[in-house]
Amino acid sequence: MIYEFKGFIPVIHESSFIHPQAAVTGNVIIGKDVYVGPGAAIRGDWGGIVIEDGCNVQENCTIHMFPGKSITLKKGAHIGHGAIIHGANIGANCLVGMNAVIMDDAELGDECIVGALTFIKAEMKIPNRKMVVGNPAVIVKDISDEMIAWKTKGTQLYQQLPAALYETLKAVEPLREIPKDRPVQETNYMTLEEFRKK
């Protein structure tokens, strides 16, 4: 659902896919090839939200802010299932893990990786290419070229997903039996360990 609020209508590039069970409200600008999953809430009611090209905001994520603040998810940011971005700015090509929480005025530098369930407190500044984990969050190491290459490849799957959804997603009635000719899903990504061995 896309909602106008106080005269602000979200601006969404036609190549991006917003799931019908997501809610995008007010002063929100979404660039090209962005995926927003079901259950996501992107609320530009108290401030602006910019989601740049190639980002993904996965299922049940919340993006909001303290009144009067505006935030940006830079190009290629990857926001994992259930994460909360509350008034924080996310650098280019970052990965925010599942159920992580990033609080007001925090700044995540480019190409950072935030572990699942991490809590980044308000106003924490994280330099480029850092691995951040824990509650409260701590920087544990630098991100290698190999890890960024692996992350970028994973994000590319989400950048291709909107076009595939437009082409093939449709509401249907369920089957009652497994058909004999049920197709096999393609394997189009690998774990970091598999990536290292390649």
TrEMBL record:
SUPFAM superfamilies: Trimeric LpxA-like enzymes (SSF51161). InterPro entries: Hexapep, Transf_Hexapept/Carb_Anhydrase, Trimer_LpxA-like_sf. It holds the Pfam family Hexapep. CDD domains: LbH_paaY_like. This is Gamma carbonic anhydrase family protein. It comes from Flavobacterium pallidum.
